[in-house]
Amino acid sequence: MTQPPTPILQVRDLSKSFAGVKALDNVQLNVQRGEVHAVMGENGAGKSTLMKILIGLHTPDAGEVMFERSPLPYGDVHEILKRGISMIHQELQVVPELTVAQNIFLGRETTGGLFSWLNDRRQEREAGLLLEQMGVTIRPGQTMKYLSVAEMQMVEIAKAISNQAKIIIMDEPTSALSDKEVAALFRIISELKKNGVAIIYISHKMEEIFEIADTITVLRDGQYIDTQPAANLNRNSLIAMMVGREIESLFPESVPRKGQEVLSVRNLSRAGKFTDINFTVHEGEVLGLAGLMGAGRTEIARAIFGLDELESGEIYIKGQKADIHSPQDAIQHGIGYVSEDRKALGFIPGLSVKHNITLASLPNHSKGGLIQDKTETEAAAKMIADLKIKSAGMHQKVTYLSGGNQQKVVIGKVLLASPDLIILDEPTRGIDIGAKSEIYKLINRLTASGIAVIMISSELPEIIGMSDRVVVLSQGRQTATLSKEEATPETIMAYAMHA
Amino acid sequence: SSSEQGQNSEGKKLVVGATMLSMQNEFIVNVADEMEKKANESNVELIVVDAERSPLKQVEQVESFIAQKVDAIILNPCEVEASSPAVTKAMAAKIPIINVNSATSAKPTAFVGSDDVESGRIAMKYIAEKLGGKGNVVMMHGLMGQAAQIQREQGAQEILKQYPNMKLLAHQTAGWDRAKGMALMENWIQSYGNQINAVFAQNDEMGMGAVKALTDAGLKNKVIVVSIDAIPDALQAVKKGTLDATVFQNAQQQGSKAIETAIRIAKGESYEKETLIPFQLVTKENLAKFLN
Amino acid sequence: MPNLCSMIPTQKPKSTYLNQVGESYKTRLRGLSTYGILLAFIAICIVLALITPRFLTISNLTIVLTQVSINALLAFGVTFVIITGGIDLSIGSMVAVTGVVAAMFAHPDTYPVGVPLLMGLLTGLLFGAFNGLVITRSKVHPFIVTLGTMTMGRGLALILSKGRPISNLSDEFNFIGGGQVLGIPMPIIILIVFFIICSVLLQKTVLGRYMYAVGGNEQAARASGISLNKVKMVVYTLCGGLAGLAGIVLTSRITTGQPNAGAGFELDAIAAAIIGGTSTSGGTGTMTGTLIGALLIGVISNGLDLLNVTSYYQQVVMGIIIIGAVVLDSWNQNRNK
Amino acid sequence: MPNLCSMIPTQKPKSTYLNQVGESYKTRLRGLSTYGILLAFIAICIVLALITPRFLTISNLTIVLTQVSINALLAFGVTFVIITGGIDLSIGSMVAVTGVVAAMFAHPDTYPVGVPLLMGLLTGLLFGAFNGLVITRSKVHPFIVTLGTMTMGRGLALILSKGRPISNLSDEFNFIGGGQVLGIPMPIIILIVFFIICSVLLQKTVLGRYMYAVGGNEQAARASGISLNKVKMVVYTLCGGLAGLAGIVLTSRITTGQPNAGAGFELDAIAAAIIGGTSTSGGTGTMTGTLIGALLIGVISNGLDLLNVTSYYQQVVMGIIIIGAVVLDSWNQNRNK
Ligand SMILES: Nc1ncnc2c1ncn2[C@@H]1O[C@H](COP(=O)(O)OP(=O)(O)OP(=O)(O)O)[C@@H](O)[C@H]1O
Ligand SMILES: Nc1ncnc2c1ncn2[C@@H]1O[C@H](COP(=O)(O)OP(=O)(O)OP(=O)(O)O)[C@@H](O)[C@H]1O
Ligand SMILES: [Mg+2]
Ligand SMILES: [Mg+2]
């Protein structure tokens, strides 16, 4: 047997806690040059915490990290970046007011001249080349805040790559990407591998892991479980390691119960975003909205929910024409919206679980403007039980909840306003496999009780697994409306790319 | 004749610019009103601006008057030193400048007003006499570092030095403000209770605040309160006997004399280089003279 | 445009199983933020009581409370505003305008005492509503809007009063700030009543909840069907009303309507709110915290007078103690995090 | 599981292109934010020139510029601070302290003129560094820290000067604020020089870039290896240095070190920065915008004096015009969005 080469990165017995909570408990990790090393675990397993220690954003409480045989300069991001570790963060880390190029080179600006003036022009040229190599069309001089989330994510990837790093940490790089960008990223990864760069890869998307990972390390509740070559594992054995139990089928069986028409939209248009959109949703039905990134799905949802003004077209609710100019109007008309961006539009981080859940239906739990604490608590408690929201109690602030539970809080809030129609925009983004299957079960329970659901998702299996009908969009136009039988991955993709 | 009173040698209407210490101070407002009245009578255009207690602003306003080529400038200085550049600049531009109410270290063309140090002396002297040269006094300052605060304190200290048996128990700023004066007095009553024999407040506003606090605490009969400016409120209080004395500065005379002097200088007539308008102590005895 | 909030990383989502115990512990400690400043406040009181026996007397404490009342009323108002993520710099000027207006109607034998009260309050409410209107319509930052109305308000007070204090007010009117009921000065009674009203409004009503929501995450609040403009209109109007009340109490206490009253009050009120734990970025704060903040400032100022600290040094000491108290509080919170 | 990658289109969605055209157009218009306030400024100048012939004269414009210089210097400093997402309320007090310190060393025949200059600047830098130190170490909000040091600074100025203006300064020293070079007043020259220095610092250096990054997204800046504490220390120190310079110019201009100078200057300086497009939430702002903001305030104040508007009404008009200018600018921006 040949001795394996010394790992470029060795993590031994690393521990870290926050206010007495052990986020990491004696964790091990060995990363070799040129390998893709996946780190897996449920929401809150400690993956991001481990990575933040490696990049210097946190300092460990105990343990040892050796990078290229010398100890890591804990807590010194600048030095660590210089030594050759870079990271794509789970949360977008962009400066919205700066340009794409300025963001890419932030912290290691290109300077020149006697007084080392900034050289923005050269930065833009270099950034342009880099983005072109990655196969994305983003103008390097563009102000960051005008990019879509996916485009920002691509810029973050470009930033990490351009650092000439020896290790690149990718913490859920694809959660905001559609398949096209994912493919581009994977091309880049195999390119990097060839050059001996090690990748630490974190994702909740199983298919990705088995496609690119060489080695898999699993964490559970802050503890190190095991490290295995990817070839030794399959989907089910990996899930079992992560969750500590088996999850049988992801998409639960449901009996479609199509009832009365709930919503019907006619000729919806908004310049530059979408044109001539027509569809109908019925009680107890899941209507999927499929399309590539930027197809305009979120824009349609926002317009229906009154977050943006419509330019033309009509919305009918239960056959009646509805005038919707604000979310208030939409809620009154029985529409609920769970945004793809739950941090921005979903919850109030500083408010408790209870207060968030009742926020959209507060008038129903109050008399003469005074909140009836008992009614409110009962309503919240029922919703928490119904949705199986796990928290330290209903008074815990939502900030401290795991992503999946945050998502359930948002859904709970929307449900408590008793909508007839719920729009779920990317309901499982960034959510672990256990929570995902619970959300699918929840969708089925909603339809079973006669609620209509519109589901927007960039994950094809999800669209196909859950929808009764699928509307496909391409570049803001409706290219097809498919029945459950017609909705195969191939047809959806064909229509999504339809010019 | 009166119709040509306010014209310069070329027959154009005279323009006088005036920059006032603070148009939020009742006394200064009175002076400004008098000036306005007098200017109307004399058919002179008067531009009044408010320096808001800032010497910098005052210098800038005078610069602006110079740029506008007014015929004369009336300066109601914020500060002895800091307002001096205003005087120097006007003199350099050969525009007559008249100081009203208080002095600057730079010498203006003419001066109309009184010496603030004197008002402090008058007030403290009254206290000393009332107390028979013996007792405990507290003093309320205006905004620290301002000319009126410094000079009124100086006058008061001069008198205190002459009475070795009078003790300055405490002194503190209440920023010329009635509410602050009241709060300060309340706190002093807590600290010193019955030890206080007299209060000298550097203006009537603070004095009135002190009177209110003392009255509320039931101590007014035992404590003498004297302040400066003789605003209507203070005169009423003197009448009622709650305020023992205030010091009167003649706003009417200062205002009208300032305009008169300005016109005379602008027209090249002879004028008084210094018009001193004395302070007067106002007590119950001579109150009638000041109430109108 | 992508929503920028989404890029601002908030606290990491927590694992469900692991932290439940830890979380509730943390949550409890979080609640202690008010508690921390309360401790600082008590510490200062103890020190003062030890240094000077005059501090801890009923009469002195009554005076402190009376003196604090005006700043506290203003601070309550600005707490509402800051919780929604706004700011109001015009409260000092509102005190002047409302005081002058009230005084204009408060001369003896003219109107019944209700009239100056109503007029003062109404002026405050209108002024506040004007702030709210400009802020919600124009989308200009409240800092600049209320800085503008601060200047305007001061001018207005001077115009209305012609630059002179308005005195000779009726005894009934002067009772509001100077009278006593059962030996308790009226300002203290007003303070307590409005403390309760404001607390209830903030904690127990739909409106109060919406304030936290708007300040905590404006976009999410909007998506929950809350009208941002309505909530903002309400808080600025409320803040104006409380400033009107403070103006009336002040005018009545000094028995004069003063056009230059209240200058700089805005900073004291904002300081009280922030010391009491209201975050300038919105979404947090309580009336109890604000009350303690106002008391802290009031006690320090009273103590320095009692100790006869020279006025120059008073300012230095005041600055040090305020920063010190907040620094200690924040260290304490960080340690517990 | 179907292999999704095999289905991935090679053709890119067209909306990306579509977007770019729209976006770059938007970006360009965004740049006009400064332009909008410039238009408002020019409009006001034209109106003034039409109403009063005294406005558009070389001598008057020279005076306006001289008058604007102090506020502009302060506003430059606070622009750095606000861009990083902070605030500095202590600048008015710094003006007083530095002015007093400079005056203490500026008596004729004591030290060469360099000494008071250096001492004043140094005092400002130290004061600013102290602000920065407390803010970075304690994590207390800059609003409360600088509110504290504002009070402390005022006390310090009074202690140092014993509450009295310090006069009798040397002619060389008085030249800084009162002299002329080639007919141009020194304050204008200083203004121009420091406008250029500050602009270059902000736009052309790595440090300036870091300021934008820290204010735009603190976490992202940190994740890019930028030391937040260093950047914050620098901006508060810079702000202190510029306040020191303003203090020197002021002292020299009024030939006296005034312990109560500069009261309220902080609000004017912050107003200039915000009017000029610096967002209080950090991450945006330019020195050009701030300069226009300061000029706008200066021109209005000058114009109102020229038109002989009664001082009470001046305040009302000033408030209205400032809000008006910003409102117009923001409407203009919104319409173009
Ligand atoms: N608030 C916004 N301002 C400007 N452009 C936007 C905004 N939101 C989205 N866009 C752009 O509009 C287009 C449609 O975006 P939308 O979010 O509706 O797409 P989507 O189909 O939901 O895709 P995604 O999977 O990215 O959510 C995209 O190109 C996006 O960049
Ligand atoms: N700054 C922090 N303060 C307090 N607790 C934290 C902090 N950062 C992380 N935690 C806690 O540490 C634990 C691990 O979190 P971490 O973000 O590492 O999980 P993760 O595995 O990345 O989860 P996800 O898949 O949802 O991203 C969680 O319980 C989390 O709440
Ligand atoms: Mg994570
Ligand atoms: Mg979307």
Which two chains have the most extensive interface, and how many residues on each? A-C, 74 and 51 residues
Q: What series of H and E elements makes up the topology of chain B?
A: EHEHEHEEHEHEHEHEHEHEE
The gyration radius over C-alpha positions of chain B equals: 20 Å
Q: Poorly predicted ranges of chain A (pLDDT <50, ≥5 residues)?
A: none
Beta-strand percentage range of chain A: 25-35%
What's the end-to-end separation of chain B, in Å?
A: 31 Å
Number of helices of chain A: 17
GO molecular function, one term (chain A): ATP binding
Protein name (chain A): Sugar ABC transporter ATP-binding protein
Keywords (chain A): ATP-binding, Cell membrane, Membrane, Nucleotide-binding, Repeat, Sugar transport, Translocase, Transport
Organism (chain A): Nibrella saemangeumensis
Please describe what this structure looks like.
The complex is a heterotetramer, with one copy of chain A (499 residues), one copy of chain B (292 residues) and two copies of chain C (337 residues). With 499 residues, chain A is α/β, with parallel strands linked by helices. Chain A contains 17 helices and 24 strands. In chain A, strands 6-9-10-3-11-12 form a six-stranded mixed beta sheet, sandwiched between helices. In chain A, α13 packs across α14. Chain A is globular, with a radius of gyration of 24 Å. The model of chain A has no long low-confidence stretch (mean pLDDT 90). Chain B has 292 residues and is α/β, with parallel strands linked by helices. Chain B has helices at 26-41, 55-68, 84-92, 116-131, 147-162, 178-192, 204-216, 232-240, 251-266, and strands at 15-20, 45-50, 72-75, 97-101, 110-113, 135-141, 166-173, 198-201, 224-229, 245-248, 274-276, 280-282. In chain B, α7 links the parallel β8 (198-201) and β9 (224-229). The model of chain B has no long low-confidence stretch (mean pLDDT 90). Chain C is mainly alpha-helical and 337 residues long. Chain C has 13 helices and two strands. Chain C has helices spanning 20-51, 58-83, 91-104, 114-138, 142-161, 171-178, 186-204, 206-216, 218-223, 228-253, 265-275, 287-306, 311-336; strands spanning 180-181, 184-185. In chain C, β1 and β2 form a beta hairpin. The longest helix of chain C has 32 residues, at 20-51. Chain C is globular, with a radius of gyration of 21 Å. The two termini of chain C are 35 Å apart. Classes of the chains: A alpha/beta (499), B alpha/beta (292), C mainly alpha (337). Chains A and C meet through β2, α10, α11, β20 and α14 of A and α1, α8 and α9 of C. Bound molecules: adenosine-5'-triphosphate (2 copies) and magnesium ion (2 copies). The site of one magnesium ion (MG) has 4 residues of chain A, from α1. Chains C, D: Its main location: membrane. Chains C, D: It is found in: Cell membrane. Chains C, D: This is Sugar ABC transporter permease. Chains C, D: It is a multi-pass membrane protein.
